[in-house]
Amino acid sequence: MSTPQHPDGDPVRDAGAPRAVITSGLPSQLIDTDPDETQEWVDSLDAVVDHAGRGRARYLMLRMLERSREQQVGVPSLRSTDYINTIPPEREPWFPGDEHVERRIRAYIRWNAAIMVHRAQRPGIAVGGHISSYASSASLYEVGFNHFFRGKDHPGGGDQIWFQGHASPGIYARAFLEGRLSQQQMDGFRQEVSHPGGGLSSYPHPRLMPEFWEFPTVSMGLGPINAIYQARFNRYLHSRGVRDTSDQHVWAFLGDGEMDEPESLGAIGLAAREELDNLTFVVNCNLQRLDGPVRGNGKVIQELESFFRGAGWNVIKVIWGREWDPLLAADRDGALVNLMNQTPDGDYQTYKAEDGAFVREHFFGRDTRTRKLVDHMSDKDIWALSRGGHDYRKLYAAYKAAMEHKGQPTVILAKTIKGWTLGSHFEGRNSTHQMKKLTAEDLAAFRDRLYLDIPDEALDKTLPPYYKPGPESDEMQYMLERRRQLGGAVPRRRAEFKPLKAPEDKAFDVLKRGSGKQDVATTMAFVRLLKELLKDKELGPRFVPIIPDEARTFGMDAMFPTQKIYSPHGQRYTSVDRDLMLAYKESEQGQILHEGINEAGSAASFTAVGSSYATHGEPMIPIYIFYSMFGFQRTGDAFWAAADQMTRGFLLGATAGRTTLNGEGLQHEDGHSLLLAHTNPAVVSYDPAFSYEVGHITKDALRRMYGEDPGAPLGGSRSPDVMYYLTVYNEPYNQPAEPEGLDVQGLLAGMYLYAPGQGDGPKAQVLASGVAVPWALRAQELLAQDWGVSADVWSVTSWTELRRQADAADEWNLLNPAEEVRVPYVTQRLQDAPGPVVAVSDWMRAVPDLIAPYVPGGMATLGTDGFGLSDTRPALRRHFHVDAESIVVRTLGELAKRGEVDRDVVRQAVEKYQVRDVQAAPADTSTDPEQQPGG
Length: 935
Ligand SMILES: Cc1ncc(C[n+]2csc(CCOP(=O)(O)OP(=O)(O)O)c2C)c(N)n1
Ligand SMILES: [Mg+2]
Known about the structure:
The protein is α/β, with parallel strands linked by helices.
């Protein structure tokens, strides 16, 4: 029985066998057991080089390599192969479609895609768009649409497909032919607000077209990494028995320029390691990006081949169209392949912007042997030598091989021409990416090239017509039938799932009780809650903790033995801590996604997990916990795309605050991520102070995103398509029990009065959030004891939600001047509160200042602006002037401004507490070294 082979000759690994750690390295220590025999082989090689030349020697060596692979000798594989198609013509499968009809369909789609963009440039609109990218990739998509992409009605559940963002016109054009979009909608391309009946979004934006697009792509690099983690998540769901994903495939269509993004290549190792053969990348290698060539002096296909092969992917190059096959077959001495190998991309681009004579002269003419090869061909024939990415059958062969390949993900590197079929002003031109209109001459030539039956007089310069054959035409029938066979239209998003039951109240008891005599940080409080929630029969299995190598820092290592870490290979080694209670446990059924030190990958996992309610109709709850500093700052764009994808779930910005993660210094101490989070409209941020607050927020969030939403705390409905961002801290302090009659509505809306001031001296309002609430409480004591001031302390759970609610009221008032004025919640709460308002947090002042416009009488703010530094917490808090003593001084200062205390009192306070002196700050007694981060 012959061993199954990869197309490049690698034997398929037995899934049960241990994976070799050295996949293709050269051994460094070899023992020669028969030197005479070795010498004979070496002499033979030398003789071939002498008599038949290096070309022949190379052939023999490669042939030996191929043979030894077939024999499973285990020699290193090549990092790159010749610049020819990976699948030779004799191994191409039979093409099951009707090539002619499919070419016609493609012509209609090509036309409508370009015309849609062209029409969007009409006077008064001129909203831009892209023509050339789809023109280069039409065949790449159409092979998929007609033969591979499975829709949501497919018994397997359908594929997940990432379309290249600026190829969207082609995808709309197909939907138009399929009858999913009307001409009116096509004319609304990029006019989402003003177009009658609604418009089409510029790029794949699920949030803007929630029944059409599934995966946002246009921030380059996020598509590839998200696709990898989607494929991985599909496996995870399968392994955990949540859903059978065995018949689902993930496709990502990418630009060759896009592959320069670090995110594009950064996770390809994971895809190989986890043997994601449910994943195919198709890279449209048109050799150009926006400004010019991707690798003018090099060869992007070769470079990508070596990256992907090196990482352990199956690589299929589709470089040349079928017209080249006879030439390559006649290339006895390898002169043509040699030319192909040596020609840089910049030249290949230029050839296609010239003509057949130019190609004869500057390509084939460089070697007398290759010049002779094309002697019998006219310039027109030479011009018609196509690129692989435009040859439908070659692409079909590649896609089929990709689908059948086992044990590795596949990348198809398809060489195309940017602007293909659009004529000489577009094809291969450096400016082609930006061109969005065709001249009258271009339009006519384009029509002729596509053999479309559109009369000259219909070719209006501004509004040339769309082309749609009648429903009875062969093409329409064929196209719709193909989609029916493959499970319906693509792309399509469906967000149907059974809401999850609300968690049992008892899960929250642990937080309500407070921490008694113990000091507990809010991070630990959240982790305790999570452990409780994991016990819930229905909800428990739905949680997916995602950790970028900080589980121990956050006290989540306790979950390793119970929830286990997902690994498709289980745990095949003898674990060093196997005898410990808290052993590091990997398992095929593991619930935790441990991503290693990889925030980009974690954000991609978060997106895949958090959109499972739509992608798979299975609501899963991602709990992505990370160093807050490495969240919105590092992967803010990924979170933005997650928001577009309507991802739901929890982001836990742990070790929050500029002074709380003390010791770690400038690059770790986060005093601003709440401000960054506020810029994302789908992110609902909270900065809780106490564990019971964490409990209420989490409970409300679960119901909003996954269950039957009880509605907003202040009334009205709210979108479930949000992600909750909770900033939690690593500083242990006493967690009070939930107060009697807690103002839950206020807590959820963003603020509630936690500790009213006592006594009848001058009044003040101190607003604090998160870890600053205990400082405010201490300040309250000092103000009363030392200065006879009675301060109310508010816990502000969310500066950002207060601001949003206020902005909404403000806008309503603006537009409805005749109606009763709506008073923002924050204004309502503070308008009768006596005395000055002082706000404090462990964040930069701009965070509390978000509510300032709505605070009657204004507000004074204390904050941690500037870079963090390493020191003790008291020193840092004194340095930034946010500690209790600083709050006191600030409050007295505000009272002095209002004439409620004497100015000299402020001077006395500054002196008494020595607030200018960091060394005078009282020592920190609360630090528990066990709860310090690992760095
Ligand atoms: C992160 C990011 N940076 C820049 C851009 C702007 N941009 C849009 S398309 C494009 C060029 C794309 O080239 P390539 O990936 O080769 O795609 P092609 O159009 O050639 O198929 C650029 C730079 C973007 N969309 N995303
Ligand atoms: Mg490109």
